[in-house]
Predict the structure.
Amino acid sequence: MNARTARRKRIIRVRSVEHQMAEAHLARATGELASLVELSKRLEGLRTDLAMAKGAVAGRALNTIGELGMRLDMAKENLAAPLVNAGIRRDEAGMLAQSAMVKEESAVRLYERSRKSAEAEMERRSDANRPHRRRAMSLRLIEGGAA
């Protein structure tokens, strides 16, 4: 293996690690987004389950239900911005992971090309180092007769 091939092999290792890190960041961002979406659904479910009781209800109970509903609404509103930011981070992480994958694949192709080139060069050199064989005298045929 020549220096160029060894260098490209090291580049492949670096690109592979970069790709793995980008995939880990993408998984983390996707998990964070899924967690926020789940939290938003749970808040919405709690709000819909918070129903007024039929019949006579004490004023304190109505006040508590109203306050709890208001807090749930505020929590859902305050969750909107983090949801958007998490979606943006997930999209950016996805683009970085895609870019890292392309770079890794490119490095692999360059390495393969370099390896094949090095093998061809070694073969050429080994052919050049073979001793030259003298041929027995032979007749050369020239147009029109023997020389």
